[in-house]
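Q: Hi! Curious about what EMI domain-containing protein looks like structurally. Here's the sequence.
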Amino acid sequence: MWQLSMSLSATAVYCHLYTAIVVAVALWSVAESAGSGSGVCTRSELAAKTRLHSVYKTRLQYYTAYGRDCGYYYSRWDSCSRQRTESYTENEPESYTVWETKKFCCPGYTESDSSSADVQDCRPVCHLDCLQGNCSAPDHCECWSGYSKQEGTENICEPVCSQSCI
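A: Let's find out. The predicted structure is below.
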């Protein structure tokens, strides 16, 4: 009895150890990679899933037999209860894990309003408003056509004049 309980607790320890290793690998494998300046990064996550699988089973089936099926000395009007083994398949849920690639906005980017659940669209964040320009990368303003950055600033664009501007 002691050996059985020792075996069961050792199995539980190995199971918890395996779970801890799987979780550690999942956390360690989070990899961020900016995809061609889109601001969308990806990471691999371990996801738990469930599926149905067929299991072959047997069961005893009781039935009423008549006459000689009951035995040599039974008449054909006699009946008896008999049993036979019946086999069948049954669908049972099965848990498994898979690695899935999840998309998310990279640091310095935020999800745009038009993002759908499937494809994530991320836009850069500029902490200072871009005046006469657009936020083209995190904290980087790009001036509109006909404008250039005002000297000493990163977010203010002023008109480019061929003559002296007032």
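A: A fun detail: The chain has one helix and eight strands.
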